[in-house]
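Exercise 3.2. Students should predict the tertiary structure of the chain below and write it as structure tokens, then compare their answer with the key that follows.

Predict this chain's 3D structure.
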Amino acid sequence: MTQLKKILNKLLNLCFYLCLLAVLWGVIQVFCFTSFHVPSDSMKPALLPGDNILVNKMVGGPRLFDIFASLDKKDIDIYRLPGFGSFKRNDVLVFNYPFPGRKDSIGFDVMKYYVKRCIALPGDTLEIRNGYFHIRGVEQELGNREMQEFISNLPDTSDGRTVMRSYPRDKTLGWTIKDFGPFPIPCKGQQVQMNRENWLLYQIAIFWEQKKRPIYKKDGCVYLGDSLLTTYRFEKNYYFMAGDRLKDSEDSRYWGLLPEEFIVGRADFIWLSKKRKNREINWERLMKEIQ
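Answer key:
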């Protein structure tokens, strides 16, 4: 009987420590770090298919939201706790893809993640000139320069392999992935005049913030519901993202702005990598810092 009690005590202690480890692992996943698998080559050469990346949630702050409501495709509020830093240009970020359904409406899909490089921050004014990224007033090389040179050498119209027409896909603006902008990336509290161009650029973001779609009418004015909208003050921060392999990347050049709430965190390390062909471990990429 005494021996049985000892066995039971050991089993109870084991269960207790296993539960404690599970809770600790859950806390780390929610508040500190998490892992994602890279399935595509849109971030090549920085990331390859088969890479498993460690994502730091503490930089911008971990997010809190109702995961069960999000799985049911319900509208949710996303809260971000204070972080130990901020996202910077050229950071590789993991985020929830903001257009999982319709291309004209921002939506949150907790199961659909992208990984791209941050090109522009809230408050930046972005331009793409002859294929190269530029931020007004900032002297900094952005993104993959080799691929920007490739885009620069493409014909001005589609070659059948690369889609040239870009966000917001309006013929009067004529923006392409070679000649784009200027595009002011909104920051919280920033105010813009609501003319036709700004309506084209920001109608999706305004619809997401206000739950009403702004309408541009023939009188040259923008309306939100029954109200005339002469100016708009943004309630959220937004980012502009791009893949390193620009010719094969579905990114902000095509779909526009990324809300800050959708960012999971910064990708810091490749903790495991397996080759696509034979699934063998790619030892050269283990614990490689992501640049």
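Discussion points: DSSP finds five helices and 18 strands in the chain. The longest strand covers residues 263-273.
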